Amino acid sequence: MALKRLGAIVAMAVAVVAGAASAQTKQIVLGYELPLSGDSAHYGEAFRNAAEIGLADFKAAGGLPGADIVIRYEDSKNDAREARNIAQMFADDKSIIGVLGDFSSTVSMAAAEIYAKSGVPQLSQTASHPDFVKISKWQFRNITTQSYEGPFNAEWMREKGHTKVAVVAIQNDWGLSAASSFADAFKAKGGAISSIEYFNPGTRDFRSILTKINRTKPDAIYLCMFYEEGASFLQQRQQLNVAAAVFGASSLYNDQLIALAGPAVDGLMLSSNFVPTNPDPKVQAFVNAYNTKYGAIPNQFAAQAYDAVGIMLTALKKTGVNATRDSLRDALAQTKDYPGITGQTTFDPETREPVKTVVRMMVSNGKFSVVP
Amino acid sequence: MNAPERAGLLAPPVLKGLLAVIVFVVLPGTLLTIGGGYLFQIATTALIFVILAASLNLVTGTTGLLSLGHAGFYGIGAYTAALLSTQLGLPFLVTLPLAGLSAGIIGVLVALPTMRLVSIYFAVATLGIGEMIYVTLLNWTDFTHGPMGIRGIPSIELFGWRASSSLDEYLVVATTAVISLWALSRLTHSYYGNALRAVREDDQCANAMGLNVVRLKIEAFGISCFFAGIAGALLAHTGKFISPDQFRFSESINILAMVVVGGLGSLPGTVIGVLLLIILPEALRGAGDFRMIAVGSIMFLSILLLPKGLLGEASALDLLRRQFGEAWKSVPGSNVGWR
Fold first, then answer.
1. Which CATH number fits domain B3-248: 3.40.50, 1.10.3470, 3.30.70, 2.60.40?
2. Looking at the DSSP assignment, which residues form a beta bridge with residue B321?
3. How many contacts (CB atoms, under 8 Å) link A and B?
4. How far is residue A179's CA from residue B311's CA, in Å, rounded to a whole number?
5. Which residue is closest to A109 within chain B, CA to CA?
6. B149–A85 C-beta distance less than 8 A
7. B292, A200: Cβ pair inside 8 Å?
8. A294: domain range?
């Protein structure tokens, strides 16, 4: 009993001391809505890990004097209904001045309607839907849109001498824009598109698509899909002996692709804005920190989240201790040449679209490597 | 028990009034004082799901047809409202009933060939219908915008009054939910509802008693889809953005879980089931990564310990008849009370 009372006294003392401390440093909270359970939990996990490192790095580099920055994570299950609830919760909480997330475009957009109405700056690391940043002046993203990556890959394929290309894309918002921006650019550069095939998310059998596109005899195939489908596609391509060269969007870039499909991946060419083997010291510092803390090599998604947090914190530093939702938004819109690990990033102040640098990669002998 | 004996607090009109006061005054008042747009958001979502679950209850609980495609009809309603308001600029008062009607009509059309199926075969057929609707919404890109979804759906507007705050939206959704619940409750607690129950208990026997079983099933399914469409329209106008992945199979299962946890065939139980499964995941946010495990465990335990649901049909019927059934008066010399 006495022990219990003692505990209560200690707890009270701690609370008083903590209260005194917080009187001197102001607490600034950033909300992060991300999938921590459900089908997409592994992406959310990577985002949270990267964000933790990003925040620690920022604090180690001096942080924001006079303010204690906290990131509050909420699980959205990548579900629009949950995301709306979280968005409203964050918007109500006046201590939250900026929000990161969500993961998929449609979920981010469901939440974005609420952030737009309440005036909270929202920066998604992955929402690539063309309309996402058009919702309001409060939406930002840190992902190369397909309107940049598509033409980049089209140019590359033209350089390699390909004239007739078949496109295989996942039937979702991202896949649609990826396929159309690539096809438009490729045609503009004098190439021909032999066919565009869409498949529903979750498809694992691509044999009918492969047979169909093989009949149109393309020199190359362009893949707009993620590594899960990419692995099945590449394996079945090998089984069916489809000779055309294969190029892909950066979404395929994941070590799991090689782990799942093995030698079938060799020869795949893809673009990416993050390569963990990049000798750049910033990249190596992040990769090492991530590997030490979580025992894994971070993928592109983790890197994008790390940079999104970095961009948000840099904007926060610019606005200072008295940052408000408005001033933070304005600072975000002025982001210019942010030296991130996913390439230099600049936000267009008007459209809020990011401009990022991208590199070319190729898989050879079971390894991703950067090619000129 | 005779009607005149009941007086005071539990007299039917008083109880009805009390419930109305809670839904329209006490709850929004409390939420306003706490100052939570977040709480309004949850309350609005819960009320939309009350309509959804209550409509599914008519088919699955009262008529005994296990439907696994309810989210599809919810989606048809949402897309009808979204397309009509964004493309044609029609007001909420037009899009709401049209959303219900389109879902209802499609419900009847797909019910026509499937109604002769029984039990698990019917369930699998509805599973297929739900997936077909989802795939259509996803792939008919020219019409539904496919996976891009529809954004910029106008907010609710009634005779020039715009529901701009969370409170306004809540009140409109609450009114629609109460009217829907009332309609569904009158339907289930009538001779018609008893006919549906007869179909559930033994459709051959019901047929032998002269009930047109196929017609009853189609009607119940159509009405249920109508209300699912209404719920969809409310989601479209309050959420402002919809996309096909909000109407997937998992959502159908979610709605079914609410009905089963609450108590199959019981409207009050359904409402409790909805409140539990909408509020619980939010209330447990503090549990962090264990949140969904906790929600799952509570669902599991509630079904294990109360297999008939939190408020089973028998007790719910009893409660409803006692409190709301003014028609349920034992007339001396007559054995039939419920009219």
1. 1.10.3470
2. none
3. 87
4. 52
5. B241
6. no
7. no
8. 26-144+282-356
For residues B300 and B289, give the distance between their C-alpha atoms in angstroms, rounded to a whole number: 18
> Is the ipTM of this structure higher than 0.85?
no
- Which of B42, B138, B239 lies at the smallest CB-CB distance from A110? B239
CB contact under 8 A, B38 and A89: yes
**Could you tell me if B186 and A145 are in contact, meaning their C-beta atoms sit under 8 angstroms apart?**
no
Parallel, antiparallel, or unpaired: how do β-strands A359-364 and A269-272 relate? antiparallel
* Identity of the amino acid at A268: L
Q: Which residue of B has its CA nearest to A79?
A: B246
User: Contacts of residue A92 in chain B, CB cutoff 8 Å?
Assistant: 35-38
Quick one: A124 and A219 in the same domain? no
A228 and A314 share one domain = no
CB contact under 8 A, A110 and B289: no
pTM of the model: 0.81
Residues facing B241 on adjacent strands:
B151
Read off the amino acid at residue A307.
D
In order along its 339 residues, chain B shows pLDDT tens digits of: 343 444 444 556 777 788 888 888 888 888 877 777 888 899 999 999 999 999 999 999 899 889 999 999 999 999 999 999 999 999 999 999 999 999 999 999 998 988 878 778 889 999 999 999 999 998 888 888 888 889 889 988 888 788 778 888 999 999 999 999 999 998 988 889 989 999 888 888 998 989 999 999 999 999 999 999 999 999 999 999 999 989 999 899 999 999 988 888 888 889 999 998 998 888 888 877 788 888 888 888 888 888 777 777 777 666 666 665 555 555 555 444 444
Question: From CA B311, how far away is CA B324, in angstroms rounded?
Answer: 16
> Within this chain, do residues A176 and A250 fall inside the same structural domain, yes or no?
yes
CA distance A198 to chain B (A): 9
- Which of A89, A99, A120 best tests the B interface by mutation, with the highest count of B CBs <10 A? A89
**Residue that is written with structure tokens 């093995």 in the block:** A262
A81 in contact with B, Cβ within 8 Å: yes
